[in-house]
Amino acid sequence: MYVQSLELNNFRNYDNLNIGFEKGTNILYGNNAQGKTNIMESIYLCSTSKSHRGIKDRDMIKFGCDESHIKITVVKNNVPVRIDMHLKKNRAKGIAVNGIPIKKVNELFGILNVVFFSPEDLAIIKNGPAERRRFIDLELCQLDKVYVFNIMNYNKIVNQRNKLLKDLNYYYDKDLYNTLDVWDIQLADYGSKIITRRTQFIDEINEIIYGIHRNITNGKEDIMIKYEPNIVGNNLYDQLCHNREKDIKYKTTSVGPHRDDISFYNKEVDIRRYGSQGQQRTAALSLKLSEIELVKNIIKDMPVLLLDDVLSELDSNRQRHLLSSLHNVQTIITCTGLDEFVQNRFNIDSIFKVVEGTVERSNNE
Ligand SMILES: Nc1ncnc2c1ncn2[C@@H]1O[C@H](COP(=O)(O)OP(=O)(O)O)[C@@H](O)[C@H]1O
Ligand SMILES: [Mg+2]
Predict the structure, then answer these.
(1) Residue 21 CB: number of other CB atoms within 10 A?
(2) How far is the CA of 218 from the centre of ligand 2 (A)?
(3) Do 129 and 73 share a structural domain?
(4) pLDDT band, very low/low/confident/very high, at 364 (cuts 50, 70, 90)
(5) Of the candidates 300, 322, 353, which is a domain's last residue?
(6) Using CA atoms, how far apart are residues 166 and 253, in angstroms rounded to an integer?
(7) Were both Cys, which of 18, 86, 99, 123 would link to 94 (CB 3.0–4.6 Å)?
(8) CA-to-CA separations, 210 to 201, 227, 303, 337, in angstroms, rounded
(9) pLDDT for the residue numbered 177
């Protein structure tokens, strides 16, 4: 699939933008704070309904305006699909697919698949578990609607259970205590499904990442990802029951997949803890490349790759690996300068210069 065109109205620092992309490699270059990431964000938004920066809708609307429109045309199997987004200041956004409004946001998932890669992703190995869980969840939400359903319900129930724990901590009441069981049964049900799907996801990534990582490191390093579910044994319900008193004391749910983690091993060494910064970055790069491959295997099509300011963070060897492994993938790259492309003779299909919320196409040669 590829993004054929993008139209922005009062989105971030754009009044009106109309841009057509090529199927291959597209470069958006310009100084800082000109609006490059804003374009990437709008594309990501059409894929996931959310900003990759975790920003609220109202903050993406152009300052001083009340609403904002994004129109994107994605071509899938030669068929164009239009996604319209209408961001509103104080209300939920409106989304339409081919002009027909959708009722639930999960109807949007899977229409446009993107893999987003930014400098923050390079830190995924050394950052905290929350970011690694976010990685798994964002990916699975794009790929698996059942997972979306399970994780949304799970998170809702964790919040409700935590509220109950707080109430019980404040004032213990036997009848109220007995209602805990209702939450624990549901939590165990959704939680187990999440654990099963995450286990499968990590297995799938492992099958792909090993070869990619060997390749990037010229056969010098291995990689293996281990899923670290936050339960002992496999009975989540028992664990929840077992921890009830403690959970009331600390007013929070101490076990369950909302506390899961994944670890990365090079042979027997935990790269999270003992890897050099270079090794951690390479592992992150391998992970992203595996993500593309995995999405491809599942959707039987190529996702769109968004590389936001990430090339300048990689040394030329890693850059080369990244760019040379992209075959038949539409790639949109932002950067401040074009030097590295010219030097490395990468194949570029279109170049755009971004200046203060305007985009101008320049000649390739
Ligand atoms: N809601 C908004 N309305 C208008 N301008 C905005 C809004 N949000 C961010 N901006 C502007 O967008 C610019 C940053 O854009 P960004 O895409 O992050 O830049 P970069 O080119 O460095 O990636 C800044 O000039 C900022 O003031
Ligand atoms: Mg940027």
Answers:
(1) 23
(2) 31
(3) no
(4) low
(5) 300
(6) 10
(7) 86
(8) 15, 15, 21, 33
(9) 96
